[in-house]
Every structure is written in structure tokens, then in C-alpha cells.
Amino acid sequence: MLLAFIEVSCPYKIHSVSYRSLHRAAKCLCNISGAERRRSWLGSLNVPGGSLRIVFNISRKADSTLTATLDSPDQGAKGIPADEVTVTDDSLHVGVKAIAGLFRGKVEDSTVTGEWSQGGRSFPLDLKRIAAEPELVRPQEPKKPYPYLEEEVAFFNSKGGDTLAGTLTKPNTGGPFTTVLLITGSGPQDRDEFIAGHKPFLVIADYLTRQGIAVLRVDDRGVGKSTGKFAQAPPKLLPPMRKPAWRFSKRARMSIPNASASSVIVKARSKPT
Q1: Which of 5, 33, 210, 222 has the fewest Cβ atoms within 10 angstroms?
Q2: Domain end call among 69, 97, 130
């Protein structure tokens, strides 16, 4: 996967160049006066398997220092790190050492024509100025109002001393219901198992509940509304053993009045935590 970054401020570096040409490029990249001190530039990388939108955000501080961040909307990443921004005459260079990436482009009015280099490969990347960052559209995600009941729930974990918070969805009427407990995989994750701009557990819970199944999904300890610290959880609480998982499902079932006592299904991914 290309582009996984952390936000870093970027110094504005000036090489031997006339003030007029430098000023022209800088003004195009980032408005110098007025309230607008940030400009965003959108481009699309054609990579194996599809395209990947990239947004360069270039801002100018009150002390005239330029800073830049990158976004990867299709991966749900914002504030992507660049540790070098160089404006030379009408050229823009943005370097990202963390991933050995480099953008080189020529600034012309509202466009920047160039290429992105990473991992020994180069991809054409032309940027256009945009007024607002592109909205991340996930058509598979359900939209409210839902045709079922949704409520916030919480359970006390006596062994870990934490309170786990989550979302319970269940059919409007009927019961008892078969109930599914969704457990995330390795690492701290929220109840929707948010990753790269996707919410797999939200989509799964919506589908199952529409089929007449109650679903419980929770934030990992130390994530979202769950208390505690994930990194400090005792190792014995982390492995996906059947007995601890079943005990947890029984506690969850206590808050589902219409759940069938013999029909609690634990659905886990990867290495549940």
C-alpha cells in the first residue's frame, strides 16, 4: 500500500533564484495575503489495481514559513508527512523520507505538472488546485435512519478493571434473536474496525441486523469510549481463547433482553484482542 504517513511541518527552502519568479511560484502554491493561507492540490496516481488520490496541502504561517501535509483520501489518511518542501524558480519538490517518496513538479497558474517517485518507480502526477478536499464516499456504509434499533451499551470487565463500550443493533420487533458478537483483530481498534477509510464492522452489523440478527460490536480497551489502556492489558486477556470470549459474550447477552441464550455467536478477525 502506498502512502502511509505522519504529519510533519515542512521548511520552505530557497535556492539561487530571482525574487520575482520565486514570489510567483510561492503565491500560486499558497496565497500570501488575506485570510486564505492554505491551498490544496489534488492529483491521482495510476497504480497497480486502480487509482489513488493524493492531496498536497501547502500553508504559509504568519512568519512566512511554508508548511505542507499530504492526504490520501482513498486510504482514509490525513496529515501525511513531508519533511522537505523546496521551491526553485517555477518548480516544486516535496520529499517524504519516511517512505522514500519524492514529488517533482512545475508550477503553472492553477496546475502543477510532475511525477511521484517511490520505491524505485515513478508515476505521473498532475495536480490541480481545489477549493475543498474531496469527500470520501463509501456507498456500502449504511445511512440513518436505520430500519432497526440501535443503542449504546457498556460492560464492566472485572478482570481488566475496564468498561467496554459498544453499539448494539437489533430488529425492531420479535425475538428471541440469534446474536453475533463482533471482535476486532490485532491492535487497538474501534467498534467499527475503522481501517484505511473503511468501517467493516459497521457494514457487517448493518447487513446481519437487516436479516433479523442482533449484533454487538465494541471499542477495544483504551479506544473510543472504552476505558483502560490497550498497551497495559495483561497478556492473558489478549489471546483469542474460547472460554474468555464466551464469558464476554455471556456478559454482552445480559444486556440483550430478547437474545436467545443458546444462540450467541462470536465472530472474530485475525488475532482478537
Answers
A1: 33
A2: 130
Q: Which three cell numbers stand for residue 162?
A: 475496564
Strand-pair category, 214-218 with 177-183: parallel
pLDDT at 262 over 60: no
Tell me if 141 is assigned to some domain. no
Measured CA to CA, the distance from residue 67 to residue 86 in angstroms comes to: 11
pLDDT of residue 243: 42
Element (H or E) spanning 220, and its range? none
Rounded average pLDDT over 15-40: 52
Question: Which contacts (CB < 8 Å, 24+ apart) does range 154-161 have?
Answer: 154/225, 155/218, 155/248, 155/251, 155/252, 155/255, 157/221, 157/228, 157/248, 159/234, 159/237, 160/221, 160/228, 160/233, 160/234, 160/237, 161/228
Q: How many CB atoms lie within 10 A of CB 216?
A: 26
Coil/strand/helix, residue 85: strand
How many residues would you count in the chain? Answer: 273
Within a domain: 273: no
119, 113 contact by CB (below 8 A): no
Report the domain count for the chain: 2
